[in-house]
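Rather than argue in generalities, we reproduce a single protein record, letters for residues, whole numbers for local backbone shapes, just as it appears below:
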Amino acid sequence: MKKKSIGYMRYMGKVKNIFFAIFISIIILISYYVILNGAKCSIYTENFSKNEKNTRNGSFGSFKDISYSKYDNGSFGYSCAKGDLNGDGFEELIVGEPTNTTAGGYVWILIGSPAGLQDSTKRLFDYVSDPAEVSKFGYSIAVGDFNGDSLDDIIVGEPGYSSNKGRVFWYNGSAGTAYINEIYAGTSIGGNGERYGESLAAGDVNGDGFDDAIIGIPGYQGGKGRVEIRFGSSSGLATISSFTIDGTTPNTYLGSSVVVGDFDGNGISDFAIGIPDANSGAGRVRTFLGVFAQNPVENYTLEGTPGDRLGLKMASGDVNGDGKDDLLISMNTTTGNWKSYLYFAPFSTLYFTLQGSINEDFGSALGVFDLDYDGFDDVLIGAPSSNKVYVYAGSDMFSPTNPQTIQGLGMPDSLFGSSIMVGDFNNDTNVDLAIGQPGNNTGNGTVHVYYSPDATQVWAEYSSIFRTYTQTLYAKGRDVEDGSNIVCYIEYKSGSGTWTPAPTPQYDSINQRWFTNVQILSNFDIGNYSIRTRFVDSEGMKSAWLYSNDSFYVANIAPSLSTSGCAPSSIYRGESATIFVNGTDPDTSSLTCQIRCKPISSTTWRYLTVTQPGPYRWTANFQAGLSDTIGQYEFQARLSDGINETGFVQLPFSVMVLNNVPVIDISYTSSSFNNTSVYRNESIIIKIRGNDFENSLNELSCTVRYRLNGTIPWSYLPTTFNTDRFEAVFKPAKTFTLGKYDIRINLTDADYTPQNQSSYLVYPTDIYFYNAITVLNNPPEIGNLPTFSALEDEPISVSLALYESDVEDNSSKLTWAIGNYDYNAILSHTSITGNEKQVTFTPTLHFHGLTKVNLTLTDSDGGNVSTQLDLYWGWINHAPEILDLRKNSDILQRLQTILLTFNGTDFDANDTENILIPQVEYMLEGNTWIAFPGPITYNTQ
């Protein structure tokens, strides 16, 4: 059963897919909006105008097309489809002319033949009672084998019939010259305003082997819309609906577009329905999966964004080559700018947005076809208002940028790119491209057909050839439009290898063939070679590859050794040298190499592992073992191509194997002491770790030396072995000169003596660490000083010698210095004297509380340390004093007042005059003191 889907075609698997009319000019869109109709149809034969002309210069080359035009103002080329209607192997091109006012619309059949489409065509047309009514017969077309007779059948939509009721006709294909049955097989009519058949598609959605018709009815029930499915059978399409899908919201127009594809890759046709005015003009596309022997089931819904009108046009094909058909959906935004979305199955994500220039109606026609036979369907998008078709190459790495363009000729309103279809109209297995231009010739319309060239023969001059010889490859091809003015490509490969392009073939006009010379290089594989050819014409249309398997055989010649060498020429045990051998073979690079070695004094050969880094070059890694014999080693090599060989050949070099040098672990060793410092009379442990491929560490001897940087001689430190390392203790004495010291470490293995260095035994390993350790002065130390205390006005004496110490100096070399102190607290201090280094501090008068004195202790090397000495004087309470007493009278009469005035003071800092409590008493001489009753007031004056 032939699989069908809208706007999509594959040739390798003989899969054909149908594409319905996908251009709506602004005038038609406003005037008719998508409605179908039909009346009794008949078949007529009429000659078309056929012209060969250049129609474009652009990225596809200079386009030459065979153009077919009709001169009855009917928008010929508005819609198109293809199919083999009579079973002769040549596909016909079915072209709609829906605006013909004489007949209400035509559908023309351009007949396929070995020479391509014939200009003597058959046409279907609709009789109408009112010639002024444009019922748009042929507005939509789809092709499928609805009755299973292996002949393609046609369904034609007439959405404007009877004031937009619409109807659909279907016609069965017919063997022989009739092409379709003279009487159409059936028709179905919609209700008022339904626009029955505005969109059509065909495919086997129930897997029964008969194609089914999918019919869009966007005006159903006030614009809710409906899609009707009529199942095919041995008697043709069902006379009533088999399955329907209804819209739910008025004026959303479900069924404005339909498309068929295999979205899940199971071989049963699936389909999608466009609802461009859903969700307030955002648009929606609903997808359905075909199910064997059942009705389709809804799968995934794609939602547009506000203003998109997603779902106006759709096409389907496998753009990314994953075995599942993808959806190409166009929309006309509220701003009037068209664009297209490409969704990869299973449609959960919008993968790419494709957009052309403003106001060119980009996406009003869509197609998905494999134009270049690479297994990836390509995306074709019509932009009729700029007379263009954009071509995006299909790929598993699809890119929406830099499309090729096909530029049609004609006035801006000639609408080149309003419909797109591919077919094989001359049965040469190559893709032919048809593009409709319904506005050409003032609305009469034209269809341009671009035929791919055809590769007819490819062969080799010699059926068997040796390497280094030259093979000539030949090809023949033809092109309907360009004749021999086409480009030939020839490629060859060995067995199941990859194809290699041959040099550009030249055309031999005498023998009418192309030829190219291929140098059979020495690295060519031996065996059978296949060749293939293809042709590309001036429009960029390609032929399918034509193959000639096992066309010629490449034979073998014996190899030979050329040059060889080694690097390095001497190695230590445990190290390796690289042995290389170069060879030649005039006819193959598939050689094997053996390399072997032995000590000159031995008779036993050792075979090395050989690798091949490049043609005719081999390398082997000669690894000297830890117990291998020390001395000279010799080498031999042998080349073989599997048929012939050189035998073992002595190589002109040898490798000296030497004893190993012990290795010091610099990182570990350095980390124990390098860039460190130590005080005199303190210790640093220098830890040395290393290895020797032939001896364990404890079998080596280690020496460690030191010196003041840059001076001589070196002094030795004793070393000991501790588990996994050597250790040496560096402890500078009190008399060491301060500064940076170098460290030198030496490891020697058991084989070393000064006398046997020339015998290729190990040399001693010396490692120098300059300025490795800094010897520092030990500063003096001050012990914990207690707080010294006394009562106020009393001196405090401190013996500082009790609190000093120094690792390097005795007390006589240590010096104390008194720094800052509070002069408000301390009046003076004595000099520091005596062995006890005593100092006495005298406080200021009546000072009490805590005060601090800064002290510094310095040794003979200038090292010093500072601290603070805490001194505390306790408080003593002093009685207040009356300074003077005055009275304003010496004699006092009864009832008179006397004023006593007196001043007082207190030496305590915390007692001020306003908190002193005065008491006044009086007595009659010789009697008892009596408290003065009157108030006592404080006067600051």
The domain at 454-555 is CATH 2.60.40.10 (Immunoglobulin-like). Confidence is low (pLDDT under 50) at residues 1-64, 758-762.
